[in-house]
Specification:
This protein is of the alpha/beta class. Helix content is 49%, strand content 10%. The mean pLDDT is 95.
Length: 226
């Protein structure tokens, strides 16, 4: 990197960065949480925000299993997602996909410094590509791994192991940026160093212990590491 002094990023033996998406890169988790009660109402079920928060960073399979357990076999996650899209899409089309503070600046910096960057999300590849395209961020990513591209989603390590491999790096050479305890657990199992930037859910004590550092924003991440 520029200059002759080693940055903390380099001192830690890191060479690449893997970003989570919802709640870390994009301020979208709150949209889903607020929408779920309306989705449930439209389907004839009482889905609370507390239930919605339990789905944060979980795979579609895990969410479906939880919802079927709560509401019975008549609950259709496919139908729920269709209603969710109908509710959220106008907001995104009107206001754009909301970015977290410091996200674009950190990605631009990493691009200038030629640091390999990956995306590792539990969301679908279709949604991930749509969000990256809508925000003009697609060009900053060298790899994209989504929940529908692996056998096991977070907290299993699959997403981050594959993202590291696609960046041509060992997992221990990658810094994972996450907003959730589930994501930190996945990074830990993958052998990656992780930094936690909490969003809607307060991190567990276990996640705080397993993360390298806890930051208030991506701007703080950039200032500390680089």
């Amino acid at each position: 990197m520029g200059g002759c002094m080693m940055t903390q990023f380099e001192n830690l033996g890191l060479r690449g960065v893997i970003f989570d998406m919802d709640g870390l890169l994009f301020d979208t988790e709150i949209l889903y949480v607020e929408a779920w009660p309306h989705v449930g109402e439209a389907m004839g079920f009482s889905v609370t925000e507390e239930v919605a928060r339990r789905m944060i960073s979980r795979s579609r399979r895990e969410c479906e299993a939880m919802l079927l357990d709560l509401y019975g076999p008549d609950f259709s996650l496919t139908e729920a997602y269709k209603i969710m899209v109908q509710r959220i899409r106008p907001q995104l089309e009107t206001r754009g996909v909301p970015l977290k503070p410091g996200a674009r600046e950190l990605l631009q910096f990493l691009h200038r410094e030629k640091v390999p960057v990956g995306l590792g999300t539990s969301n679908s590849s279709e949604v991930a590509k749509a969000y990256l395209g809508a925000t003009g961020l697609a060009a900053y990513f060298d790899a994209l791994v989504a929940g529908d591209m692996v056998t096991h989603a977070k907290p299993a390590p699959d997403i981050f192991l594959r993202a590291a491999a696609e960046l041509g790096l060992r997992s221990e050479q990658c810094l994972v940026l996450e907003d959730s305890s589930v994501g930190v657990e996945a990074a830990y199992r993958a052998g990656c160093l992780s930094a936690l930037v909490p969003d809607l859910l307060a991190p567990t004590e276990e996640a705080i212990g397993r993360a390298w550092r806890v930051f208030g924003s991506l701007t703080e991440v950039q200032g500390t590491l680089f």
